[in-house]
Amino acid sequence: MGSDAVQQRQTADYVSQDAQFQLRERQYRQQYSALYFTRLLQLRPVLEDRVRRQWPHVQALEILKLAAGVRCAVVGTLYKQMQLKPSILDEYTKERSAVPLVAPAKLVHDDDFLILEDMSGRIRLTGDALRPADYATGVVVAVLGVEQADGEFAVEAVLLPDLPPQPLRPPAPAAGVAPPRYVALVSGLGVGAPGVDPLQTQLLVDHLGGHLGGSQAQQLSARTVRVVLAGDSLHAPPDLLTGQALSAREQAAAVAPIQELDLLLTQLAAALPVDVMPGSTDPANYSLPQQPLHPCLFPGASQYDTFSAATNPHRFSVDGVDFLGTAGQPVADLLRYCGRDDPLALLESTLRWRHLAPTAPDTLACYPFTDSDPFLLATCPAVYFAGNQAAFATTLLQGTDGQRVRLIALPRFADTGMAVLVDLATLEAQPLTVTTTNLGGP
Amino acid sequence: MQTSGKRPGMQSVGAPPPSKRLNGGPTHDTPGDSPDPFEDPDFMEEEEEFYVEEEAPPAAAEIRLGGDDERMRQWKRPPVEPPINQATDDIVFQQLDIDYVVGTTNRDLLPYRRSDKAAIIRMFGVNSQGNSVCVFVHGFEPYFYIPLPPGYNPDSRDIYLRDLDTALANADRQGGRPGSNVLDIEVERKQSVLYYQRKRNRPFLKITLALPTMVATLRGLIERGLMANGVYLPTDTYESNVLFALRFMIDRSIVGCNWIELPAGAYRLNRGRARSFCQIEVDVMFDKLISHPASGSGLYSTLAPFRILSFDIECQGRKGHFPDAKEDPVIQIANLVTLQGSSKPLIRNVMTLNSCSPIVGADVFSHDTEAELLLRWAKLVRDVDPDVIIGYNIANFDLPYLIERARVKGLQEFQFLGRVQNTRIKMRDTTFSSKAYGTRESKEITIEGRLQFDVLQAMQRDYKLSSYSLNSVSAIFLGEQKEDVHHSIISDLQNGNPDTRRRLAVYCLKDAYLPQRLLDKLMFVYNYVEMARVTGVPFGFLLARGQSIKVLSQIMRKARTRDLLVPNLKVQGQPGDGIAYEGATVLEAKQGFYEKPIATLDFASLYPSIMMAHNLCYTTLIPKNQVAEVASDIGPENVTKTPTGDTFVKADMEKGILPEILEELLAARKRAKADLKLAKDPLEKAVLDGRQLALKVSANSVYGFTGATVGKLPCLEISSSTTAYGRQMIEHTKMHVQSKFNIANGYKFDAEVIYGDTDSVMIRFGPDDVSMAMELGREAAGYVSATFIKPIKLEFEKVYCPYLLISKKRYAGLLWTTPDKYDKMDTKGIETVRRDNCLLVKNLVTESLHKILIDRDVPGAVQYVKNQISNLLTNKVDLSLLVITKGLTKTAEKYENKSAHSELAERMRKRDPATAPNVGDRVPYVIIKGAKGARGFEKSEDPIYVLENNIPIDAQHYLENQLSKPLLRIFEPIMKNAARELLHGDHTRAVSILTPTVGGIMKFAKKRLSCLGCKAPIEKGTVCEHCGKRETELYQKSVHNVREMEDLFGRLWTQCQRCQGSLHQDVLCTSRDCPIFYRRKKVQKDLAEATTQLSRFEF
């Protein structure tokens, strides 16, 4: 099998833009209000501008200046009051048996309602123009409507910040000019997780490294210029890490998955550049932005300069194509707190909200930033992905200002055996499936 | 305003809690223990109200407050539409408050009355359109009875009248000129309520007087020996200790809060100068008004749309001091006006000192001076004209504070808040003392015509809680935490800008809103109104007075229908030294953990039904010395000898009034419950539920009333006979059950009574499954009931399975009422809420019981307890679980013995007087490791200080003094050697103690890096040479630690944001009652430390 001709691996220019997600001095004396404050401060001019253009005759007011019966627009941060939202207080105050052992996947309830808050105050929103199920806490919007006698605000229309500008336009598709080149996106290797087939993972690594398949397959692999592991590569056994003294055997068990992953990464890094993003199950910090995995975890792979540990979220450009993605936590959180079930729709929403993770910090853990909100989307990426989703899905989103964004729901590899190849020229995304069903077996 | 329990009124939190919930019902709980709720001897003091013409209030208020007319106009009540025509229109209204004043006799209605001064009854209420009504009732005169003096005859009447009149004229400070004091003397045939009387209708002398206070005066004279017509009068008096307003209500069949009808033509609309601020003001003769009983449904059982004002004030204390009304200004007052029955407030506003940014949904009134602020509020009260004023701790803080401030500022017009023109509000100190509710010092404030309902007082009466702060009460009943702003921060907010004052105003509004929410949620209005209706006392009595007046009101009403008179018994002792008599029986508890179902048989309304069954009453009791005589007279078959040897007449001969009252109460309760089932409308349901509850409580309190030795009408023969019957019945039940349900009689097992308490018996019938036990329970209940006199009935209610019986009055079990699924876990006497326990105890006990009873996992429970103890000893327990809280009732010098919390308060004052707890605050503390031999009170420390300085906790103290007793109680019946297993096992070997950062030797200590793996000292980096291989593993551990802390940090701080209701502003709350307060502080520190440790890997 295979030809003897050696395929030359293609390369591409790579620039990491993770600096915005990197934390230097970490302090925890501050609270979260500053984060919301800067978020609103940054998005307000955008929305006020949109209000002026959309509703030229309407005045945009602060909540405090509202008068009952007067039609006007208000810009503010949404807060969704939710019945089912779990509260840490329940752990103290509720009877034990009343707390369900497993939190439901969806926390949406018919009685949820939205509150709009600006620097001056808050007001409850009513009306069918905005369904609470479509929004989440932390989203900044402009609403048009009238304050009622009872102090509620009846909303007639809503304006979102909408897609941010895209100064770095992805190249226009020019098929056939040059051989296509790909960036491979993989998430959820789940090394060390119970039930994960190590052979399947090894197959993927071998394939990406060009050690497998016929010439066609090898060609495909040679054209892959970079692999990005979008989180949850590792499944660390949490019960071994509670701080109890470990026996020698337990010590070994605790590090075995990391060593296994290091081996895989070493093989990959030897073949092509690899970005490793941390995810919710990786040995990195918990709250967003997650900081790069520490090199001491990967004594083998970190010897290669092709290996780079990235932040989550991770932003980078490959040959001028602007990539942005997360290991999936923002989307997972929105799935729980919004009525929508489609990860792509939620990805689109976050772009239109110009915010990568609006539910941070409310229900999504996040660092208490004081003078910036790194999750604001000032510019529109060309490829926007969320890792660790249940299934692969993709679409091309076109903005009114000519923005073009490839949205990708990246499936968990451990469950699906699927990686995704993104064509740098056309922005097409195609699944790459590895399966062990035809291999091995008795 | 309610800030970290800082009010002086919060002292009462430390007073003994009510022994039982009001609506729990004494019979159901522990009726035999003590009838003490009735020992409130001072409740019958008659107080004179004088109608004094005062100068009209200055009109300056109106002028100074101009400019906001538009928003203030909506404060007024709807106009009376259409205007009333006194010749053709009936006036129908719900009365809420009844009192009386002494004024000038109304010569239009009473042209021939002999005295110029008269007691005028005033009724305040609301009609169904929401108009306020004030009725002046004339012509009702005070009176009382004495037995007919020997030698009295119709011809000597005038001499008696003259002699009594003269005696009064000499004695009574109000006594007018001779001839106008005693209005009438007449002979009526009555009999005493006390003892069975063979001879009916003895003659009594009814003495009618001009003014209510004369009753007490003349009674005193007579008791001390008064001569009339040359002979000494009998010294016993009857019906001489009834408050005048209540006397009027009893005689006119008016009960608290019922509907009154004034028929057209019978009343006179006020046309001259108004005497009140009410919209409808009328004069009427006392016999012309119609009282409608509140029963069934329809208008007369509803509630009028009366106006409830809920308010809260904020004041600006100086640093380090509790606000003092003599010095510190009121800076904000938030108000919420709600119509009874409406879910949304009618008016919502906040009045501030200095400018304040607008608030959505609330009117903001800003003022340049405190005087204007206070006058604005006075205007609000006059304009809104609330029928009920509520708030949290208003009786002892907000109202006295406002009144004192107005006095300091010299604001005369502020004092006119009542409904009666030209009458100032009054304030005086009172002490309310009863064994049930403890001694409370409080202010009594009279705002005429308006009821005050302090939600704090109602909570303290009706619920047994570990903390009564508004925050903690809201958390329990409304499921939400309240933001708590420390008073040192209040000053900063006030001194800031309009936005910070707005912040404070929002907070103040919430504090005005929460009492209203509690009122709604706990149905206080419905329950109290129905209690007033059932017992017949005015609404205002329910919070201000004790239990016995409610029972006495019913006895007097019933006695009146039978021409019986209630004697005025002299008080026989001091509260507390009541004569002891044997209480209820408790069958010995057979301690153990029962895995087979235990059926419980309960006596329904045990004490009431005993009293009914055996006709136990004042009127049926035969005095000891007359027993033989009476028995031979009416036949021995017609008397009952009780187990205590007292003798009562049977019902066929003479039905007692107590059994009759009880029968009516229980029948009415049955009706109310039936109506409740049919009711659809939630408001109607609330009324009916309140009614059936009030009826139940009332029925149960009759027994206690008879046993209150310093009460108004004690009769120990009744109460001790009742409990004796109760004891006998429990034994009787045990005997019958065990002799019938056994193998010899064909049953599968021998039944065994394992425990019996007052009104219930617990039986192990033997079968394994719950439904079998239920069937046997039902059979036994029917079988045993048949052996009792009606209406005594044994009911089968529930099965416990499994059942952990610890000792008498202490047990826990899963409660089943249907065989399919258990209802809940039921515990009794296992302290999970005691205030001097830390949260860890409660959690441990609850969780252990859960594991034992629900999961049926005893080894799991043991393991759990061991783990927790191990965590405690290795310093892994969340500090907030270890906090103990005590109320600081006086300063440390005044405590006779040094106590942990007062000493700590003193130490904290030395550190920072601004944030140290003041008298009235609750002091939270933890027990820390002290120097060797340190005394207990020296080992208390502020939890925050402990957190910040890594001070080690005295885990051993917690283990021995807090955990061991409650845990052993649970585990001893279950396992052998519980103490050794749980408290001294292997899991207690590992101990770790924090290194403090302050004090002692630490001043000389130097910090050095140590290896994360083996703690060996190192120069730099993370691990020593030997642990180098373990770096990955150690990194994983460190990062895992950071992860957990980050997760907590996020969840805790966002929770506080949600609670304060703002995303864009920092959380200010410092509520130490909040379970996450310390945790939130600790996680900041822990997370910073964890990240620092993690950053050691970056090199």
Give a description of the structure.
The complex is a heterodimer of chains A (442) and B (1099). Chain A is α/β, with parallel strands linked by helices and 442 residues long. Chain A is built from eight helices and 18 strands. Chain A has two domains: 14-25 and 174-237 and 245-433, Purple Acid Phosphatase, chain A, domain 2 (4-Layer Sandwich), CATH 3.60.21.50; 33-159, Beta Barrel (OB fold (Dihydrolipoamide Acetyltransferase, E2P)), CATH 2.40.50.430. Helix content of chain A is 21%, strand content 23%. Chain A has a six-stranded mixed sheet. Chain A has a six-stranded mixed sheet with strand order 11-10-9-8-17-18. In chain A, α3 (198-208) packs parallel to α5. The longest helix of chain A is centred in the middle third of the chain and has 24 residues, at 248-271. Chain A is globular. Chain A starts with 13 loop residues before the first strand and ends in a 9-residue tail after the last strand. Chain B is an alpha+beta fold. Chain B folds into six domains: 85-304, OB fold (Dihydrolipoamide Acetyltransferase, E2P) (Beta Barrel), CATH 2.40.50.730; 307-522, Ribonuclease H-like superfamily/Ribonuclease H (Nucleotidyltransferase, domain 5); 523-567 and 657-710, B family DNA polymerase, palm domain (Palm domain of DNA polymerase); 569-604 and 715-829, Alpha-Beta Complex (Palm domain of DNA polymerase), CATH 3.90.1600.10; 831-988, B family DNA polymerase, thumb domain (Topoisomerase I, Chain A, domain 4, Orthogonal Bundle), CATH 1.10.132.60; 1006-1096, no CATH class. In chain B, the strands form eight sheets. In chain B, strands 22, 23, 24, 28, 29, 30, 31 and 32 form an eight-stranded antiparallel sheet that branches. A seven-stranded mixed sheet of chain B has the order 10-11-3-2-1-9-12. Chain B has a six-stranded mixed sheet with strand order 16-15-14-13-17-20, with helices on both faces. Chains A and B meet through α1 and α5 of A and α21, α27 and α28 of B.
